[in-house]
Each structure stands twice: as structure tokens, then as C-alpha cells.
Amino acid sequence: MIDTEKKLPNGWKWVKLGEVCDVISGTTPKTGISKYWNGDIVWVTPTDLGKLKTPKINNSERKITKAGFNSCNLNLITKGAVVLSSRAPIGHLAIACVDLCTNQGCKSFVADSKVIDNVFLYFTLKKSTPVLQSLGSGATFAEISKSQLFNFSIPLPPLAEQKRITTVLTAQMAAAEKAKKACQEKLEAAEKLQTSFLNAIFESENAKKWPKKKLGEVCKINPTRNPIIADMKQNVTFVPMPAVNSETGIIDKAEVKKLKDVFKGYTYFEENDVLFAKITPCMQNGKHAIARQLLNGFGFGTTEFHVIRPSEQILPEWIHSYIRQPQILHEAEKCFTGAVGQQRVPKNFLITLNIPLPLLTEQKRIVKVLTAQIAAAEKAKKAIIDEFELIDKLPVSLLKQTFERKL
């Protein structure tokens, strides 16, 4: 709740939103009447507000006609009003850049410009979002009522101070957004590094000189399971599809199951086998990994893996690096079989896949360099993500500073 007993700076006062704004609800024309829809009147929903990247709104996914507008006593919200999603979820905000109307999931605030600046109102509501969300109630989804919003108290400085605050905040928010965009660009560049490293290896001049073999000539694809002589109550490693990190190609969420529970109906693999996700979209997303640190040297996983067992001529890391290249995954996608949504890469794609095969010593040298490069790239990426998260928190921090008079 807002603490209206809290002492405010000189010249500030507590006011109810209904004292300084018209609070307006929205509604929805009947969806089954076609003449009400596909018009030119902007009709905003919480979904529209949630998709915004800026504080302004001038369009909507669906629009209504004049007939639709007149059919349900909608109010036209004038340009400059602040629009709030009042349910599903509470808290999306925007300033209207055109005249518009809304559905029942929004409440709009038309400010009395002689008393409150509309941009100041936007920032005030933005700062108050956690409190507004806490006031929501409802069996199906949380909602805050028009009456609650009408009576919601906000701190109000003199108009000149409001404008000073909005000028400072607008400039700082723009700077924060600019920093966020720059950080996003750095992150996108970092995410492309691994592909660049792989291209530098497999498309190099040296690579053109390496002999090529079909993967089925140097590996066993989906080999027959070796006899297991073990206690059926013992623990084994289990790898469902979510256990594989699609970005790193590492099994980072392996599970432990009893052998008796996975012995039948799952894919068997052994230490150092390469697991290739065959089903869409896991295949395209890069859910391919080397089976490592398996309990008792073997494990089981989803049947949506092909198993690639390397011979002594080829390293599992070499196979793993090669098959995770975007161009290889693209070629695999061309070979999909099955119904849409359940398409899979057939075993034969892997058997016939041409793979460059330098000497084992050269594979080891290259894998060592590549591993170091990828580790450095991941470290840089983590630093950028940490920076991005810090920048992402700036707007909340700036709002807090403003309303604590620290700007």
C-alpha cells in the first residue's frame, strides 16, 4: 500500500488519481459481428501494451469500425492519455499518441493538464506498478478496478517541478535505452562468435586439404546396445531433451534414475558417445552433446536422440563441433521425414554425412584451441548478460531516485 502518512517535500501533496484525472474503462464490441471489426479506430488491449518497446502507443493489433465503437458505448481516449493494463497482467503502461479506445482489460487516465503533467503521471504509475499489482484480485486472474484506481493516492509536486522531473527522467530513460540497445548488439555479436570460430576451422584453406569420410565410415550410428550385467536397482544417468543446453551443447541438467525404470523404452549410450537430437525444433536449436561423466560409464535418454559412437580415428569433440555448425543443421533440416511438428532427421543423414578428417594429432590441437576460444567467448557473453541485466534495472532505479528526491 502507498504510505500517505509519509512526509512529502515542501509543495508536494497526496492526491487521488480521480481528483486529477478522468479514469475511463474500456469494453469490447461483439466479436461475432463482422461490421464492427477491421476498421480504423485503434482498440488497445493488454497484449498490445505488453508488446511495446517504448512508452508510446499509436496502433493496435485489432481495430474497430465506427459501428463497433457506437455499439457498446465506448469512450474515445484522447491523445496524451495514459493507458494502463488493469488485468492479465496489471502494470503495462503507455502514453496514447493518437485518439483511441481500449478493451475492458485497460483503464485510461485523461489528466487535468492544469494540475498534472501526463508524462509525470506515466512515470508515477510506472513507479507504483508493484503496489498496483498487489491490489489486484480475482478468481481467474488478478484485476484492479476502476474504483480502486480512482481512489489510488499519488504524490503530486507543483506543475513546474513535475516538468523538471519529467525532463530529467525522459533524458535518463533515453540514455538507459540507448545503453541497453548497445549492450544487446554486443550480446548478439558474442552469440555469433562460436559460429565464427567453427567457420574459421572448417572453411579454412587447411580444411580443403583434409581427406573426407562419411560419418558412418568412422563411427557407429545408433549402435546395438551391449549386454548390461548390473543390479537393476543401481542408479544410472538419464538425459531428457531439456537436459541439453542448446547454446553450449553441454548436458548440464542430467537426471539420475534407477536402471529398472529406464532399461526399456529409452535410448542407450556410453561414455564419449555423441548425442544428436533428431526431432524438430530441438535439432535446429542445437541440442547435440557429448555424453560425459556417466554413472558406471553408460546412460539412457529420450528416444529423440541418434547416438554417434566414434572410432579411434575421430574425436567426439571433432564430431560435436562439426555437426553443430548452422550449415550442417540446415542440411539436416532438408532431410526431415514425418508429419509437421513431429519431423525427424533419419539415421541415413548421419551415416552419409561427409566430415573432414585430419590426423588425430591435428584434431586434438584444433579442439584444444577451439575449446579455449569458446570458453573465452562464453565468459565474455556472461559479462555482457550481467551488464544487460544491470542496465535493464536502471529505469526502476531512476524512478526510485526521483521519488525519493535524489535526482
Automatic annotation (TrEMBL):
Residues in coiled coil: 360-387
Molecular function terms from GO: DNA binding
Signal sequence interval, chain numbering: none
InterPro entries per record: Restrct_endonuc_typeI_TRD, Restrct_endonuc_typeI_TRD_sf, Type-I_RS_S_subunit
GO terms for biological process, alphabetical: DNA restriction-modification system
Domain Type I restriction modification DNA specificity stretches: 9-180, 208-383
Gene: hsdS
Keywords of this entry: Coiled coil, DNA-binding, Restriction system
A Pfam family this chain is assigned to: Methylase_S
Organism, as annotated: Limihaloglobus sulfuriphilus
Protein name according to UniProt: Type I restriction enzyme EcoKI specificity protein
Family: Belongs to the type-I restriction system S methylase family.
Highest taxon in the source lineage: Bacteria
